[in-house]
Amino acid sequence: MFTGYLTRIVKQLLSFESTPVQTVQLVSFWSVFGTRTCTTAETAFVSKAHRRYMHSPKAKRHCSNMSPVKIGTHNGTFHCDEVLACFFLRQLSEYKDAEIVRTRDPEVLGKCDIVVDVGGEYDPKRHRYDHHQRSFAETFNSLRPEKPWVTKLSSAGLVYLHFGRRVLAQLTQLDEQDKQLDVLYDKLYENFVEEVDAVDNGISQYEGEARYAVSSTLSARVSYLNPRWNSKSQDTEEGFHKALALVGDEFKDRLDFYHTSWLPARAVVEGAVQMRHQVDPSGEVVVLAQGGCPWKEHLFSLEKELKVETPIKFVLYPDQNGQWRVQCVPAGLNTFQNRLSLLEEWRGVRDNALSQLSGIPGCIFVHASGFIGGNLTQEGALEMAKKTLKAARNAGGDQANGC
After folding, report:
1. Does residue 264 sit within a domain?
2. What family is this protein classified in (predicted)?
3. Is residue 197 part of a domain?
4. Quick check: 91 and 120 in contact, CB under 8 A?
5. What is the pLDDT of residues 206-245, one digit of tens each?
6. Do both 244 and 132 map to the same domain?
7. Residue 222 and residue 248: Cα distance in Å, rounded?
8. Could you read off the pLDDT of 332-354 as tens digits, one per residue?
9. 244-279: string of b/e by CB count within 10 Å (b at 16+)?
10. Last residue of a domain, one of 65, 82, 100
11. pTM score > 0.90 for this model?
12. 285/339 same-domain check
């Protein structure tokens, strides 16, 4: 009935001849591949054999004799980096049920399968991921030169660097070869993990004194879960596990946002950029079929990735009322300067007066600063962009200007 490895699974489960390690391998293999490769009858047969084995005295002896996998980290006051590192590891099949051993005893740590944030050693071959030793100065860029980040890594960053793709694949159920995983991997480091690395290593965001305090960062909220200095109990175990749940929920929530909202928006913008020459031969106008789609960050990154030679000047999209907006592309993410603003003589003019002034039917408004305008139709909004582009070319003014 069976062939190859599945045949051996059945025979070993039925004969109770497998070792404890083989038992785990057999059950794991069956759970992943068995139901994909067998007929209904074969699946039922193997499942019955599996249940029979798991309820047998020998199976119970095997389970009781197996040494639990152990994740080692330091005891005492806990910090966001090792808590996040432990959360990452717990998402992987080999560490899913691992015991977290919190100690500084080298002998105890030596018996752990993986050690993070303690031990004074960085050796990925032996699964040792500490960053406190004097010789350690690694960054994402130093270990992966194709990545841009130069913040010194903490245990969170080290574990993310080595295991992050697998963690994300597990949490999103994306294939590890899916290109979306590359985008998420970079995004979650830059917008979640790097902050933890920087805080733990005492790296400031800026030079000089801060104008105000920020006390609600993830690292700060983790620190508040440690016992207070004057608490009767200085036991950190309960707080550590609360912190583990806190960082885990926050990371999964952020990942869910990037996976189910941010990434689909990127796909919409990428499609619009690819189709820009069909909107206007200049390639300087893109159309988003759906309003409300966040586009600025994606547009800037996609222009670089797709090697867009002529910068895009305008984005068209429908609003909630079914009317159309024409919005100027800013010169950068954090500036009020536009690459090209709508015509100055249109600014602050509305409705029929604007239509008569521009010669474009259906005009609704142009903002007084010139960064956005509206029209009843997509064609009208596109014409507003085209006339602005034509005027800029005639004036030789294809440069950024204030909004």
Report:
1. no
2. Belongs to the MYG1 family.
3. yes
4. no
5. 888 888 888 899 999 999 999 999 999 999 999 999 999 9
6. yes
7. 11
8. 998 889 999 999 999 999 999 99
9. bebbbebbeebbeebbeebbebbebbbebbeebeeb
10. 65
11. no
12. yes
